[in-house]
Amino acid sequence: MKSLSQERSAFAYEKAKSAFKKIGSMKEFSSFVAGLPAMILQNGLGHTLCFLLAKAANQGDNKYKKDDKHWLAFEALAEWLKERGMLSFDINKPADLIEEITKKGVLEVIAIQEEALRFLEWFKVVSKVFVEDK
Predict the structure, then answer these.
(1) Distance between CA 126 and CA 107 in Å, rounded?
(2) What is this structure's pTM?
(3) Distance CA 123, CA 12 (A)
(4) Three-state secondary-structure class, residue 63
(5) What is the pLDDT of residue 134?
(6) Quick one: 31 exposed, middle or buried, by C-beta within 10 A (0-12, 13-18, 19+)?
């Protein structure tokens, strides 16, 4: 049996490892992820997820850049919240997650945001594991 914190850390570790395989250098990604909790606290979870998704969008072909740091952070967070049963996430329809948040009550959004912040604390720390010293 694992604690919730252990589950968060294991999920965050796998997502960070996957990101490392896709983008190679984690220094910029780790720094980027470290700023996400502050962005959520300043702007809210929905706004932050919209920002990540918009930055990952390739306007030229109406697809998302799946190797982009914004997508990788969005995907990790969305999949964790799905894993916890707080939001649904379909990788083929990521914008539906934003719509789902807009339909939630304020107390539910606060609970989801709190879980997102707790996950990001682990994601921030484990992302640093893959940073290479040069």
Answers:
(1) 29
(2) 0.93
(3) 5
(4) strand
(5) 47
(6) middle
